[in-house]
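Residues and backbone
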Amino acid sequence: MKLNASGRWSLLALLVGLAVGVASIAFEWTTQAVRRYTLGEFAGYPSEGSIGEHQFFDSAVIPFSPWMVVAVITLGGLVSGLLVHWLAPEASGAGTDAAVDAFHNRKGVVNARVPWVKTIASAVTLGTGGSGGREGPIAQIGAGIGATIADRFHLSSTDRRIMLAAGVGAGVGAMFRAPLAGAIFAAEILYSDADMEADVIVPSAIASIVAYSVYTQSISAEVRFQPIFGNDLAHTLTSPIELLPYTLLAIILMFLAAFYVRFFHATQKLFDAAPIWPHLRPALGALLAGLVGIGLFIYSGHNAEVLGILGTGYGTLQHALSGDSGLTIGILATVAVAKMLTTSLSIGSGGSGGVFGPLMVIGGCAGAAFGQAAHAMFPEWVPYPEAYAVVGMAGFFSGVARAPISTIILIRELTGDFGLLVPTMLVCALTFVFSSKWILYTHQVASRLESPAHRGDFLVDVLEGLAVKDVYLKGRRLLMIHEGETLDEIVHRLAETNQHYFPVVDANDAMVGLFSADDVRAYLYDETLWRLANARDVMISEFYRVSPEDDLNTAMQQFTTLNVDELPVVDPENPTKLLGFLGRKETIAAYNRRILEHRRETEQDV
């Protein structure tokens, strides 16, 4: 049975979803196993997590040893660095940016070793306390699975890119238990401006649903279908005046986004320039992150909430979202700022993890701190301070990751809190628009126009929007050759002009043929033919013509097919009447001018 394109893509996306769903279970189980038998077994580290997360292992019962945490996290950085350096260097750092790079710049190709190396290395980094997220690694793992399946079926580079994106969507949809957000995220995260890869949405949606369905089977029935942060988050917008403090929150988040992105990239450059072996840099970053985490823990009077600056931080974020009275403005602000530092050290040093989850912790804690402060000053305007944690998560992620639509959907699926849709939209829109200069994922391109994956598509689109009449040289004086002129006469006339293509006309000036200077050169070494041969012997009567109304894409196809530099432009009502010549150089110049105009218009809009 032969499948149509839709059926084919449905089956391929189903296969990607199944594989990524299984990989998500393996990654989560491995991460929790490493955590239980390193931090738990040797440091007595308290288990962290949100209400809706499933724990595969029981917590350790030994006393908490803060300085053992530093030793474990450093060892984890060393093991992760060695694995990545020896087996798959592209698996270092944040996973999402690597997937974006493969889509745009590598024709969707991902080393087949990346998924399993990323699984182990990220599980070690996160399981031993490195500050990072699970979602970035699973995005790269899913991308690698999608690309590998595409290679097994010998798909084209275009199709491989779609499979890669479907794997990203499946990974995010499964790990966040947010299949709709995963599908949109895969299409949106590729670009830093308001653009989207429409072709990947349907395959990504199918893959995301399947991966989500597979992954949730590993979760206990009590939390299987509830949001990660529980069912108890329910807020409402009681008055439009509440949008004023939400706008102020957006401004604060913009400044935080600018600081975080610059600091993260500066940390990466510092580690890249450090005079130590590359595979030791993650260990150094982990050591510094551990010292910061434990130092602040001791300084805060052994407040366990501060430990959210290590690991995923979801436990602290859960308390911020729930309005836990034990979280003061000072603790929340400390976690928000210190999480930027520890994540930059853990991942910017080359540790294998994601920046996806930390963005939500930073934004959520910053939003909660702002909410508490605003509630103390204007309780009637800010009746629910914990609601600002929900909106802060979304706003910070939208501005830094450049994905506002999927962020709005994602936060709804994570929290189940639909009453804050309007302020979430407002804050996400503001941070997205005004944080455009600070891009965390450096391999994002502005739009499809800038993507190497779409250069051919835009060449066709732009050329089809231009007509021959807008480009060809109308006023150019052409040397016409009468069909009876001898080769001797033609040679002497060619010596007086730089013209390369010559129309041949009859007694009524009707064009009957065409020849080039190269056609004449074939006769130059046989002088006996000079007076015997004439223009009719040299010319070709069957040649390709274009009319002024033809589009330039049609003309460009003929330039390429015929390997010529000029095409005759004729009157569509009288094909023997020559109007001029269309040059390949003029066609390319017109394309470049249109692209430049588009860029200027885009810059003005921004």
Summary: The longest strand covers residues 574-583.
